User: What shape does this take?
Amino acid sequence: MIAVKEKLKDSSLFRKLYIADLFFCNIAFLQIPAYVLLVFLFVWGLGLVIYNQRVNNTFFKLRFGLWVGAFLVFSLLSIIINFSATILYSLIMFIHVLVCFFVFYGMHTEPNFDFRSELYSMARFIVYVTTVANIIGIFCLMFGIRFEWYWIKFTIYENRFTGVYVNPNLLGFVSVVSIVCCHMLYKEKLMKSVFQPRVSKIWIFTCIATNLFSLILCDSNASLVLALAYAIVYLIYIFFADKTGLSASKIIFKIIALVVVGAFLASSALMLRTICQTGFSVVLSKTNSIISVIMGDEDITSGISSVETGNPQEKKDVTFGHENKNIDSGRFKLWKESINLFKISPFIGISNGNIVFYSEEYSNGVLNYSYHKSDLHNGYLTILVSTGIIGFLLFGIFGFRFAKHSAQHLFLQKKTFRNDVYPCLFAFLFAYLIYAMFEKALLYDISFMVMWFWLMMGYMSCYIAKFEPMLETQYLFHRKRLTRTLL
Assistant: This one.
């Protein structure tokens, strides 16, 4: 019993299990048990928020915690003022935000915490599990195993490859995360600083290959933007983090080179995706024809489709492109609706739980309680509508302060980080800020993509805390008052 209690106090163990469970929430057939377990983990997370504050004094040690505290106060104020039938949902989201800030981002306040070891464990888990999941999905795709069963659309979702995941956009995001993890595991300093079993190069190369394949065939535009942004930001670091100094001519030359390389990467990625989708569509069609002949023209999944759904899926040629040819995929309509919701309470916001409720009651009813229309699909608009101008500005100040310190340590430190994971974390977080403009991301969503963002922010905060050891002893006024850390 004592051992169990000690485990319940382990924030690192919680983060590992929470991330793993949220990942399996995206896997077909594992989604329901994963969501059941998530309820217990969520309660555990709330308990850790309280425990860490009581034992570690988390808030008063939190980097830029003053802005976090102010944001939380106005978020709670928005919930109270906009009291409605969805108050429970708003409170759940508020607890979720607490977990993001105090358990994930606040990991740098934990004494004697080995963040490199946890980062290595997380990256290794992602590499192993995504590689296996992709191999299964690709195998099923090649042998024509695809069907619909209630909400699960196995291997093909609206003409796009989804593999064993429940949505192709989730597959796209996980693919980018996996490639970034492979990049981090290749860093020499990380490998030397942990005492855990090494990930072999065969696993890493297989992971990269299968995830690139999945990223191309899932046709997720937002995920492709995330991957390109990551590559470009990392190149910016390589170009400009020159410890020998940069002259004006060198800066101009590198800017021009960076623009050319960025344009080449973007155009090449789009061209490669189109060519691969077209080519593999032909290969898949021929493979399925051969399998049909071998199986005697019998659909091996027709029994499942007809019995469970009563609507057998037609075996038509798959092109791996969006069936909806609108480039915004309906997002413009959601973003226009956010303007009407923002006007209801521009300064305090309407609280996150009321977004769908107020859309149906006081606006055009564009939003409803469904997977695709229960969110504004823009992390910034969601925060603005939920907490108003005041909350949005407070969150923005926190983000700006964090980004400023992160960039300073990356570009102004005398030592280089090329052999460390710090540039990878910085590049991913910056790329994610662009990605958040198009997806249910950034804060108000209990999902793998949101919590992975806060996990990366937590590791970055550990670097900041490591580089600024003197901030703990500097005070704004005099001793026993607010520390400079909070600002």
Q: What stands out?
A: The longest strand covers residues 152-157. The radius of gyration is 24 Å. Confidence is low (pLDDT under 50) at residues 299-314. Residues 248-294 form the longest helix (47 residues).
